Amino acid sequence: MQMSRAVGHPQLVAVLGLPLARVVRRPGEPDALPGRHGHGVAAQVDRAVTDGAVLVSEGERNGAFFPPGVLTNVATSSPSYKEELFGPVATVYKVDSEDEAVELANDTPFGLGSYVFTTDLAQAERVADKIDAGMVFVNVVGADGVELPFGGIKRSGFGRELGSFGIDEFVNKKLLRFG
């Protein structure tokens, strides 16, 4: 899954900027995005910046290559606020409370997966329960597996694949009722 939004406390967001931009691209990953994706991401990022967002990035755009970056200060009125970025760019938002974080995380037309990172188990359960997504991972990334149901809500799909819930998507069940 592509990370499009990160929501955090202002003190955390203040230290994320450039270090996060440096790690968005992992060692060994190709320098270019296949096809036209780099151009689509470029247009999205340019539009966000035109609308007042701040881009922190290292490197230069070159053909399909798009350097890792972090967008902050994306206005809720900007079309970029409701878009997913399928490229090496993360959008980071500052919030002052748990409720504000959940509200912002849910204010999207998408709902495939979300992540919650905290050292407080009660908070993790509380927040994960409030997140509108088909999957919520707590303190872990990439923890999906073939035995677990995979799927989203909203414009990220419906139903599940994989696992016992997934196999039910391919079964036509029939009710027979006799009186």
How would you explain this protein's 3D organization?
The chain has 179 residues and is of the alpha/beta class. It folds into two domains: 1-96, 3-Layer(aba) Sandwich (Aldehyde Dehydrogenase, Chain A, domain 2); 97-179, Aldehyde Dehydrogenase, Chain A, domain 2, CATH 3.40.309. The protein has five helices and eight strands, in the order βααβββαββαββα. A four-stranded mixed sheet has the order 1-4-3-2, with helices on both faces. Strands 5-8 form a two-stranded antiparallel ribbon. The longest helix has 14 residues, at 10-23. Residues 13-38 have low confidence and may be disordered.
Describe the strand arrangement of the main beta sheet, using strand numbers. Answer: 1-4-3-2
User: What is the H/E string?
Assistant: EHHEEEHEEHEEH
Q: Measured on Cα atoms, how large is the radius of gyration?
A: 19 Å
CATH topology of the largest domain: Aldehyde Dehydrogenase, Chain A, domain 2
Tell how many strands the DSSP assignment holds. Answer: 8
Measured between the Cα atoms of the first and last residue, the distance is 49 Å
- Overall shape: globular
| Overall pLDDT | 75
Report the top-level CATH class of the largest domain: Alpha Beta
Q: What proportion of the residues is helical, as a percent range?
A: 25-40%
Number of helices: 5
Query: For the report, how would you describe the main beta sheet?
Result: 4 strands, mixed
Assign the CATH architecture of the largest domain.
3-Layer(aba) Sandwich
CATH superfamily of the largest domain: Aldehyde Dehydrogenase, Chain A, domain 2
- The percentage of residues in β strands lies in 15-25%
